[in-house]
Amino acid sequence: MIGYLIRRIAGAALVLLALSAIVYALFYLAPSDPAILTCGKGCTPERLADVRAAMGLADPVWTQYWHFLEGVFTGRDYPAGPDVRHCPAPCLGYSFETDQPVTALLLDRIPVSFSLAIGAEVLSLAIGVGAGLLSGARRFRWLDRLVNGLVLAGYAVPVFLVGLLLLLLFCVHLRWLPFPTYVPFTTSPLLWAQNLLLPWISLAVIQTAAYARLTRAGLQETLAEDHIRTARAYGIPERRILRRRALRGALLPLITLTAVDVAAIMTSAVLTETMFGLPGVGQLLVGAVNQIDLPVVVGVTLLTGLIIVIANAAADFLYAAVDPRVQLR
Amino acid sequence: MTLLKVDDLRITFSDKPAVDGLSFELAAGGSLGIVGESGSGKSTAALALLGLTSGQVTGEIAFDGVDLLANPPWKEIRGARITMVFQEPLTALSPFHTVGDQIAEVYRLHTGASRRAARERAVEVLGQVHIPDPVRRAAAYPHQFSGGMRQRALIAMAIACRPQLIIADEPTTALDVTVQAQILDLLDEVRATTGAALLLISHDLGVVAGSCDSVIVMRQGRAVEAGATERVLLSPRHDYTKALLDAVPKPGTRKLEPGEPLLRVKDVRKHFPQPRRGSLRKPPPIRAVDGVTLDVHAGETLGIVGESGTGKTTLARMMVGLTSPTSGSITFDGVDIGRRRGRSVQMVFQDPLSSLNPRRTVGESIADPLRLRGVRDPRAEVSALLERVGLAASEYDRYPHQLSGGMRQRVGIARAIAPAPRLIVCDEPVSSLDVTTQAQVLDLLEELRGELGLSLVFVSHDLAVLRRIADRVAVLKDGVVVEIGPTAEVYEQPRHAYTKELLAAVPVTDPVAARRLRALRSTVSG
Q: Coiled-coil region(s) at which residues (chain B) (predicted)?
């Protein structure tokens, strides 16, 4: 187990290192001079030279990458005019646009994206698994058909359409909910949930469909297995068979999907964030790409990689916990 | 006293009869065998006894005064008074719960015992079915058990609530022959110690012979013959019973005329490296084949027998050059088999369904080796081959799933003889077939051998099959040949202890001999 953990973490570190190298290479292959971008408008050749020196752009790329890595692990110093500005680890540099540390920008956005992901997952899992189980166990024929129909609709409807309709209905016509703005959980849990409810619902509409379908298929597959027949032959009540045996088999594939979805919402739910005015990671990335704010792009990419690595590891551990046949090694 | 009375039982699936007027009686504490080939309706009938069939059921099933077709209180019957042992011990137990928990769950459900008492009962019955160290083993999951142990665990579950009737549906089909013998002995022991009646369902007459007082032979949903085991098996009246008994492989009568050594296997080893797990040291490799030396002579049939995991399939694959040995040499006609490009050695595989491309017609599959040989339009030749193996030339355009198991294996054989080989290696070619089909396929191989002057290597776990077809037999254990010699000699005067053990485990259709062997096994083990 310890050996597995060590290998797993080492593997993740390698992935992130390779990712950082690729992104950093893009940084310098891009057809734009970071120094000119930083220098801004009204840039004189002297100032440009200063900026170039300050950013260390005169050094070979290898050295620069090495300094970048150093910054991530130990922090680094940036010369800023006559002073030296210290950027503590993990240092990802400063935004070209706003001159804020990238780490701080990310730390601002992560709670928003995380809140979005958590709520959307709880909602879609609750509804999706519930509907999938009911239709998979064939308790209600009509529900089975309804779920099948909704699945297709959920896949087909674009998220911004759902979002706009929800806004129109609940915020404009009925006025039950305020126009969403992000309120931190620590400030007021109630306001936090109230403001995030509509984004959660619009994300859940799409995911619920997929979850319901996967649960339904998994349940029907598990119910057809031999050990379920054994349980029936030994007089175990149907309800207990569903709860104790079939459910586990049915939910296994959901673990992987949920992990992928969490990572996706945390890093690329741009449409939802934009529509509901939530300052999440996705918006940060889109803004940075538009303005060629390279340090931010690098930062968000590394964060995305980290989140995906963590989500996958969590899924593997959960899988092993649910299914005794799976061994981590 | 009659415990179970089945009268004129009919089960239909959308107007197709699966069971068509079956009647029998089983006395309390008695034992009844139902024998039939696949599709005879024997398993359907068994499931109906627990109300678990999805077909339309009519007739009468009376169990200890309860009418099982009139919506009886199943909760008190299933798993408590009637229990079932299923065929596939791996999939028949829940993979998510420990063996002990699963047994305790059933016991608690039917007796209302405390958790603790249920757990104790689980350990007790696991001990009763001879699971070593039952306290510790109760906490293991099914996938941590071997096939034989899983079946023991299922039997433990079956006896946990002290049932009046145990139904065993092909309980030993997936198991090795020595394990099969142990499980059959165990069922017999359980019947004697608990007083439960046993309904044993099998395709194998030999399985039923030693374990049941009376026997029903089923065919197409009907009982064609019923009676005391000795009477039915020793003096059968119905033609189908006679045909079944005839199909059971009998010792061959061929004389050995040793030809030149054709294929020479010299000190061959095949080791599979193991992945590193946890520790930094590399684990030792699996020694699938560990130093085998033998010759296959021209014109002979060499049988290779062994249980699962003895390396017999690996050896067979190396003989045709599909796998290369780790060390040692295999030569055919003096040329290394790995360098030999050509068609003189062919293989017939175990599972004809998965070894034929499902998306191509069987004719095309047979034509492949001919095309490799440069035949432009192989259709005529393929038709001749199809007819040679007993199929109609019109089967050319059919797909593997449209054929029966026996027909598919004939296709596999036609494909093997298409390039006119000199040696055919058959890996368990008849193990998935019914006994009558099995006999036909063996006859075909025998014919082809004489006619085409072939040599055969016949790999099997089934000693009875080999006794019928092989001139010489090699007994494989743990990747090593422990005994090799002329068939009659090996079967009548086995020298190695493992050969003796194997031979004692082979099911025989003579009930008297079956009981003698059981007694022999108990003195050997006990």
A: none
